[in-house]
Write a structure and sequence with these properties.
3 domains; Helicase, Ruva Protein, domain 3; 23 helices; 60s Ribosomal Protein L30, Chain: A; six-stranded mixed beta sheet
Length: 705
């Protein structure tokens, strides 16, 4: 639809600025405006904007509509997920959470907090895997740094289609899983290694429903001194906005609106400009400059340029404190000439931070940035009036109530109806196969086989603080561990254990029980190395929330996460929701990725998964072994189906945790490994491979009834 007649250029300006005639637009034309401008806003949302500006008795400018498109995107305002998140997730063990802003903050010891964040970079990685994954790492490290924390480790849960997927079956516009996997791993490797932070924890999972929409989830953990914690909000009117870091270009424009719609066969060409360009060589000095300014007490507030760019960072810093902002675009450094004001406002170019500084500290901040060869310039001020105004070349080009721009719509179950998934009970019978043959096939299956070919591309030992590594056992024969352990402080033996888990084959069958199992497995992984589970972060990857069945999967998964985490008193300290993970009508399996963080009082007591010596006794601890084979790698191999996925007995899990931690503390455990994909057979095999030893196993006492 041609809506060009509704765009009215303002005359006598030294730059292009348009007013958009929403008042005379039909419903179809309102949607046409949204599509042409890349806003990804619905008809109801366009009508809300139309009514707002009618009350203001003026037409909106293009930069104002672009600002609302970013701020009201699913990625930025969580309009479809905020209601169920408040219902199920936010209030669990809230007393343990010090802050929940760009990253979550929890006490580590008397003088320090640990800081954690987990995000998705799914759509960008599907279009340009190297750049999408690299900038995912670049964005997540900024989330941790902007709380005043030193990053200590990266996490990368990754999900792709089968590597042997036939080329002739690939949908138009979709890249092959092998190409995506290589590009994503290379992007994470190059960015993480170059800024000198270990990538030591993650997972790689393959499932046919990720063919059209891979998932690239990235996390970061940091450590901060308690007296140096800085918040993502202004302190007072008069605080100066200081733009710090890389230049602003046309890369990353409409990144958040691109992530708030389904992928199509045209996405590869039409949305490539939405993928940002990362620069790790600029990032490292930016981190040093930021942390030095914060260490010297020069910052009043701090936030990274994330989704929505300058538009969102300037508004959110003021909005969270109940203030407003005035921003001048003239001082923003540009990568290219003749950028329109709206492009400068919403660009998501990388390696940028926004400092809030008192005027008396401005010169000191600029000096520190210059010392680190990092660009910095003032671009505006916090104001008392709760309004956001933007100026360019002496002209006011944007003025809105900050609550209207940043607050955004919130959709409850009436606006986003959902249907609870229903399943038929199925459990196909089969003849017992050759277990020796099956065990070998399980150990070589893509979701179980060793991922050392990925792990060893990452420098997981840089900085020398990775005490328990992702591969464990004798040199040359290492096997998978359950969690990694980081020693974040030089003068303390206290450590952080970190793990990442989700089994999408479980959640595909039963989102509720699959989510319960995810919390269960995260806890067992942490306990296996000797850590007491302390907190969780989540990255909730789902399909189109406008479809009731997809929203039903989201509600059920959130309910499952709540039911287990609440009884274990584990808060969700930080998180992310990624909707619209669908391509050409096929949704991904519900994928509520979890990162679990545990506390180890003395890292010298840690346990690894490999068997240590001949004569060690093997014990199976926990639930009775049942025929819960739905989603199992075993059933995939023998081509059988079942709707019965593993359940969780929370009280027994709690007792098992206490039991194993007591055994570890007393030095009675030599090895420990959780039972997960592949069951007891794979679990014991991985322990034996790591120890380069064999075992004699008697299964007659395992669930003899």
């Amino acid at each position: 639809m041609d809506v060009s007649h509704l765009f009215k250029k303002r005359n006598n300006l030294p730059f292009e600025l348009y007013e958009i005639d929403l008042f005379n637009a039909t419903d179809d034309e309102l949607l046409g405006i949204s599509k042409q401008m890349g806003l990804a806003l619905s008809l109801d949302e366009m009508k809300m904007i139309k009514d707002y500006f009618k009350n203001k008795r003026r037409l909106p400018t293009d930069i104002e509509l672009q600002a609302l498109g970013q701020a009201w995107s699913e990625h930025c305002c969580y309009k479809s997920s905020k209601y169920p998140l408040k219902q199920f997730i936010y209030d669990i063990a809230r007393e343990k959470i010090v802050a929940r802003e760009d990253a979550g903050v929890v006490e580590f010891d008397d003088g320090h907090y640990y800081v954690a964040a987990l995000e998705s970079h799914n759509h960008p990685s599907a279009v340009e895997p190297y750049g999408g994954a690299a900038t995912g790492i670049g964005g997540i490290v900024r989330d941790v740094v902007c709380m005043g924390a030193q990053p200590v480790v990266f996490i990368d849960p990754l999900f792709f289609g089968p590597l042997e997927y036939p080329y002739e079956r690939l949908p138009k516009g979709v890249k092959h899983p092998r190409y995506l996997l290589r590009g994503v791993v290379s992007g994470i490797r190059d960015y993480g290694n170059r800024i000198g932070i270990p990538t030591a924890c993650g997972q790689v999972y393959f499932h046919e429903k990720y063919v059209g929409n891979c998932l690239v989830n990235v996390g970061c953990i940091g450590i901060a001194k308690k007296d140096k914690l800085v918040h993502s909000r202004a302190k007072a009117p008069g605080n100066i906005y200081v733009y710090v870091g890389g230049k602003t270009g046309r890369d990353g424009i409409h990144g958040v609106t691109f992530a708030s719609a389904e992928l199509t066969e045209e996405s590869e060409e039409s949305s490539i400009s939405a993928v940002q360009l990362g620069d790790p060589i600029t990032k490292e000095p930016l981190i040093h400059a930021t942390l030095e300014c914060n260490e010297k007490g020069l910052l009043e507030g701090l936030k990274d340029f994330g989704g929505g760019g300058l538009s969102c960072v300037s508004g959110e810093l003021a909005y969270e404190a109940g203030y407003g902002a005035e921003i001048h675009l003239d001082n923003v450094p540009l990568k290219e000439e003749n950028m329109a004001p709206w492009e400068i406002w919403v660009s998501e170019s990388q390696e940028r931070m926004m400092f809030l500084v008192n005027e008396e500290n401005l010169d000191k901040v600029l000096h520190i940035c210059k010392k680190w060869d990092v660009f910095a310039t003032p671009v505006g001020r916090v104001i008392k009036e709760p309004v956001i105004r933007t100026f360019y070349k002496g002209e006011k080009i944007l003025e809105m109530d900050i609550s209207f721009q940043v607050g955004g719509p919130v959709y409850d179950s009436c606006k986003r109806p959902y249907t609870t998934p229903k399943k038929k009970i199925v459990d196909e019978d089969f003849e017992m196969p050759d277990l020796n043959e099956i065990l070998l096939k399980l150990l070589s299956s893509p979701n179980i086989a060793c991922k050392g070919w990925v792990i060893r591309q990452y420098d997981h030992e840089v900085r020398g603080n990775t005490i328990i590594k992702p591969l464990q056992g004798k040199i040359g024969g290492e096997s998978h561990g359950d969690a990694i352990v980081i020693k974040p402080l030089e003068d303390s033996y206290k450590g952080l254990a970190i793990t990442s888990d989700i089994n999408p084959s479980f959640t595909e069958i039963d989102p509720y029980l699959g989510a319960c199992s995810a919390v269960d497995e995260v806890c067992r992984n942490l306990v296996a190395v000797g850590a007491r589970p302390d907190s969780l972060t989540d990255c909730l990857n789902f399909g189109n929330p406008e479809k009731p069945e997809r929203m039903g999967e989201f509600y059920e998964a959130c309910r499952g996460l709540r039911d287990v985490a609440r009884k274990l008193n584990l808060p969700f300290i930080s998180g992310n929701v990624s909707f619209y993970n669908e391509a050409q009508g096929i949704s991904i399996p519900p994928t509520p990725t979890l990162v679990g963080i545990g506390i180890i009082e003395d890292i010298r007591k840690c346990v690894t998964s490999d068997i240590k010596s001949e004569g060690n006794m093997l014990y199976l601890i926990g639930r009775e072994t049942k025929r819960e084979m739905g989603g199992s790698e075993y059933y995939k191999l023998i081509k059988r189906s079942s709707s019965i996925v593993p359940g969780v007995e929370i009280d027994l899990l709690k007792r098992s945790i206490d039991c194993i931690l007591e055994l570890t503390d007393k030095g009675l455990l030599k090895s420990c490994h959780d039972v997960s994909e592949g069951g007891i057979g794979v679990c014991i095999s991985e322990m034996l491979i790591g120890g380069n030893i064999g075992a004699k196993i008697d299964l007659s006492r395992v669930s003899p009834g």
